[in-house]
Design a protein that fits this description.
Number of helices: 2
Strand content: 25-35%
Protein name: DUF1249 domain-containing protein
Number of strands: 7
Helix content: 25-40%
Pfam families: DUF1249
Shape: globular
């Protein structure tokens, strides 16, 4: 049986990017370049780690935010790290860097040298959405001083 080529689902990708834009706005608010915010992820008395948001660049039409997570396994392995561009004119947020890999295509042939999934870009933006939704639902935030 022949495998059909993956077709990028633009409607799903745009919907995910729009929802992530709103989630990030709730979390970063009016933060300026260099500012960061930590969100403690916990349940009852158990602490699962921290979600860090740092505004790397802030311009009138775009903002770049770095999203990282730290936790109990930091001594063994580095937590996830993403860079996300917020496009204010179209009200969308897109993952542009994940674990220091950049420039994701809308679709990949599979298999490929980097082992990207055919819908890697959509999956990364969905992961960001789940990550942010969890932080909004279960996180406790406090502001930190500016990092310059």
């Amino acid at each position: 049986m022949a495998r059909t080529a993956y077709v990028t689902d633009l409607k799903s990708l745009q919907g995910e990017c729009s929802a992530n834009y709103l989630r990030l706005l709730r979390l970063v608010g009016d933060m300026e370049s260099g500012q960061r915010r930590e969100i403690a992820l916990s349940s009852d008395e158990q602490h699962f780690g921290d979600l860090q948001l740092k505004v790397l660049e802030h311009a009138p039409y775009t903002t770049m935010v770095e999203v990282t997570q730290s936790g109990p396994l930091d001594a063994v392995m580095e937590g996830p790290r993403m860079r996300v561009h917020l496009y204010h004119d179209v009200r969308m947020a897109e993952v542009t860097d994940f674990q220091r890999q950049r420039h994701f295509s809308g679709r990949y042939r599979y298999p490929n040298a980097h082992m990207h999934q055919p819908d890697e870009k959509l999956q990364l933006n969905r992961f960001l959405g789940e990550w942010l939704a969890h932080g909004l639902a279960h996180g406790h935030t406090y502001d930190l001083p500016e990092m310059r």
